Amino acid sequence: MSGKVKHRTAANTAEAATVTVNEKILKECHNLYTDADNGLVSIGENLGLKLLPPRKKINVMLMGNHSAGKSSFINWYVEEHVQRTGVAIETQGFSFVTSGRKRESLTGNATLHLYPHFKTLQEIEGVVDYLNTEISTSKQKKFSLVTFIDTPGLVDGDMKYPFDVNQSILWLGDLCDLIFVFFDPIGQALCKRTLNIVEQLNESHPERIRFYLSKADEAGHESDRQRVMMQIVQELCKRPGLNKTGFEMPTIYISNPSKPSRCVNQIEEVCKDIEKTINQTIQNTLNQLERDCEQISTLVDDTIRADNMARSHNLKAKLKGMVFSLLGFLLPITLIFTLLVASAPRRILNNLVGEDMAQAIVSFMVPITTLWENVDDENQLAILAMVLVASGICLIISRIINKSKPTLQRRSKKILIEKQEYVNSHVKAQKKKLYAEYLQQSVSEHDL
Ligand SMILES: Nc1nc2c(ncn2[C@@H]2O[C@H](COP(=O)(O)OP(=O)(O)O)[C@@H](O)[C@H]2O)c(=O)[nH]1
Ligand SMILES: [Mg+2]
């Protein structure tokens, strides 16, 4: 007896330790994104990249007919009576059940505050009044890494819901990692509304959906249970959107010590499935972290390359612009100079630059001045006009060419490179470390 107790305590400690490792990994990943200065979200924002911080828990939605045992399943998993149950007691709206530091119930608005991912629900009229959160301190099973979403029991017919229940479930399904569909053997196992929603959910997220025959202990004998199951599967297969081969429908029930049942109970499989999804989520989160680091690094490289190109473009544009402005100024100056040398009396030139220099200039300019003297007066005027126009055009071209592209400031460039360095060394190293911790923990889990 004491041996058994000891063994169980050891297992519990190990369990607690593994939960802590997984929790820690998801929390640290979350922090790597949300850190105010060096978080990937803010770094990405500066590069025009929108990143979402990873979630710290997985979301599991339970849906199904009225009184199929959804709320009871949550209570069983949490090992605390958080959700009201009973054939007559209907879960009216959506209940988020999650673990926290103290037992507390939150209203719809507080719920949306707690789950910003679910903010879009607000757009469905009236639903916020039917949202609530139950926080429990339970750490049973993997509850610290799970948020359950209990949904209103679905029924056919004239039942009026105070909000668009189908739409709400579809939106929630988009944000959940697992969708459990409970069918119970006595209730309206084949409620059309349930089947319709399941069919729609299955279109976008077939990999998230799991079917269960709940309250299997109430199905009577083995043969009755088989018949109920056949009926449900047949009904599911009639739906074109659901017709897949190899339907799996584990039978589950919450065992009652005072009413022992010989029926096979596969409820542990549900726990394993939740665990598997948590592990998958951790791996996905770590892989996404690596990809986001790489994307940031590439974006920084691209930004710097584009900046270098803009700089060299600006330099070339400046040089070309300078050549054209020079031409624009030199053309009229040359002309005026030519006119001066050709037409002004030599005496003035002598006085201006001295006799020797004047001689040198005159002989240097001989080809142009003779050319100019050979042109008659009317054409001289035309040439003058043409030169002025050409000079004007050169000046305009110079302005057009010399348009610079925006470049980064030296300081921002430095910061970008620092962030890239931080992501490549610190964040990636952190990711490696977390992966190692994750693997280490799974290995020891297998050893147990
Ligand atoms: N025999 C049996 N009864 C169950 C089981 N799960 C739930 N119930 C009962 O079924 C009724 C409806 O359960 P509840 O969890 O409120 O269903 P919900 O409407 O889907 O949330 C309650 O009276 C529960 O005690 C089960 O596995 N076996
Ligand atoms: Mg309920």
Automatic annotation (TrEMBL):
Residue ranges of every copy of the G domain listed in the record: 59-201
GO CC field: membrane
Subcellular location: Membrane
Keyword Nucleotide-binding appears in the UniProt entry: yes
Tree of life domain: Eukaryota
Gene Ontology terms for molecular function: GTP binding; GTPase activity
One GO term (biological process): mitochondrion organization
Database matches in InterPro entries: GTP-bd, Mitofusin_fam, P-loop_NTPase
Any coiled-coil regions, as ranges: 264-306
UniProt keyword Lipid metabolism present: no
Main location: membrane
Listed Gene3D superfamilies: P-loop containing nucleotide triphosphate hydrolases
TM regions (residue ranges): 321-342, 381-401
Alphabetically ordered keywords of this record: Coiled coil, GTP-binding, Hydrolase, Membrane, Nucleotide-binding, Transmembrane, Transmembrane helix
Protein name: G domain-containing protein
Source organism of the structure: Petrolisthes manimaculis
